[in-house]
């Protein structure tokens, strides 16, 4: 009963909302014009999210985030060293547990950048170092445009020509960095209003994540990804992704402690170092694996992305409650 109570406590409204949105997208996916509208709304929500981050962070905090090189190096190490090594180890699961295409997908998910939006949103919810998360996640994605294709060429057998559209860099700058800088410029005028309406900011944090979940499940439903493989193979991928995430979460917690980071920075390592970006991974895969079964190859990334959102939502809520308790005990 004690275990059941802990599980029920962890499944707060936000986590239940993630499950609900995933089910809704599976039953009623957005397609055609609705998909285009969903994409536009999601982009706008993420831009608003980063604008609000800009208004909430003082220039001093933002500068500290830029200069915290040890933190960023650790996050990049988790993303582009720890994950690829674990991906290579997963080779032992072929062909009994994973087919060759599914193993390629598992290895590929280990090579893509960290998420930006959800990493920063969860760091914010958990009361971590948001400025550090903004820089770490953004640098991971900018480097990923070059590093991910290079790692794929080195580690993955592919007949596709490895090249990436340079416009991805422009998209990151336009959708994330520009709104953040605009928020910094507007901070003096509206920072007080943002602080007084913290609940609205929290709604943007969590609402943007729900939009990403709905969009991802809609794409998988429309493209028929779930019907390509047998239920046994899908269950195997879910199990492998769950174990991979558990190992990485444990490693990031340990690394944060070994580096003697404070609580706020350990949260950044946990959430930025354990994530993999569906938004970056899908378009890169469409180029790198042209002419191959892309739907199957990106399936592990799709599944891992959803699992990480649910698990990290639970962790973020737990950290948030702990921070509230600590603040209450010291007041």
UniProtKB/TrEMBL annotation:
Gene3D superfamilies named in the record: 1.20.1530.20
Spans traversing the lipid bilayer: 7-31, 37-53, 73-93, 105-126, 133-156, 168-186, 207-226, 232-255, 267-290, 296-317
Keywords: Membrane, Transmembrane, Transmembrane helix
Name of the protein: Bile acid:sodium symporter
